[in-house]
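ok new one. same drill as before - structure tokens go in, u give me an amino acid for every spot. 267 of them this time. try not to just spam alanines like last time pls lmao
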């Protein structure tokens, strides 16, 4: 049995379809180690604490903690790091309690501006764009208005915007967030600057924000939007494999480094 296990960390949802999407992505992993998912909230019996306990019951002594989150600026990651004993105190208020554990934790980065994220966004855009030189693009994410966390969201979103602008001759690529609320202002600006505005949501899975909230904020504007998210793109599983295997703690039976020049074919 492996002395190292993998704990994939996800937010959680009351929608079983949302949870199933996460589970499918994790089940697609091919790793020589036990893997489980720990949800921050709303998924009964599958908490982060239960995930740690389950891995330790399998003899795991070291856990690779992989946050399946959009950005390092998420305040939830601060909460989770505190709960896992990686911080002595949380920077934000949390109801999470420290998780009892015997194992050591090896934390890895969330998705941020990884090349896989750029490729997923690029593929979404290609299905919507018809004349890039006459179009603008608005990337919409959750964001944060908490000092320190907001700056991390800004860094990630600015980096993604530059990558998309470098891949297409769009008139402009900008970003907006739910927190702080900048969606309407940015959308109106881009809609006036071009004949066609493409809106891309940056979320792990479809839910309230992608299906209801964002379209409501864009009401009355001329835009193109299909609401697709990072999942169910198969490259999310590939990203997880790479992040896990790069720690040197887990071997992938079929895992391999992601070659960004081949991403389109693999997607």
């Amino acid at each position: 049995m492996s002395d190292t296990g993998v704990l994939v960390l996800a937010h959680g949802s009351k929608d079983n379809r949302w949870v199933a999407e996460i589970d499918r992505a994790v089940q697609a992993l091919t790793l020589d180690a036990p893997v489980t998912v720990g949800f921050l909230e709303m998924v009964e019996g599958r908490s982060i604490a239960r995930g740690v306990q389950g891995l330790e019951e399998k003899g795991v002594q070291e856990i690779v903690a992989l946050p399946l989150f959009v950005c390092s600026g998420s305040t939830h990651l601060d909460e989770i790091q505190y709960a896992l004993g990686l911080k002595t105190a949380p920077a934000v208020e949390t109801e999470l309690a420290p998780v009892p554990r015997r194992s050591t934790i090896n934390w890895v980065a969330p998705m941020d501006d990884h090349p896989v994220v750029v490729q997923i966004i690029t593929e979404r855009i290609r299905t919507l764009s018809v004349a890039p030189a006459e179009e603008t693009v608005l990337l919409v994410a959750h964001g944060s208005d908490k000092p320190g966390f907001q700056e991390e969201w800004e860094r990630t979103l600015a980096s993604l915007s530059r990558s998309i602008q470098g891949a297409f001759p769009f008139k402009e690529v900008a970003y907006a967030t739910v927190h702080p609320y900048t969606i309407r202002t940015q959308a109106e600006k881009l809609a006036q600057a071009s004949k066609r505005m493409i809106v891309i949501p940056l979320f792990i899975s479809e839910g309230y924000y992608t299906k209801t909230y964002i379209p409501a904020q864009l009401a009355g504007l001329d835009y193109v939007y299909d609401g697709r998210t990072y999942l169910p793109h198969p490259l999310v599983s590939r990203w997880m494999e790479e992040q896990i295997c790069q720690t040197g703690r887990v071997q992938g039976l079929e895992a391999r480094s992601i070659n960004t020049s081949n991403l389109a074919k693999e997607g």
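The chain has nine helices and seven strands. and btw Residues 254-267 have pLDDT under 50 and may be disordered.
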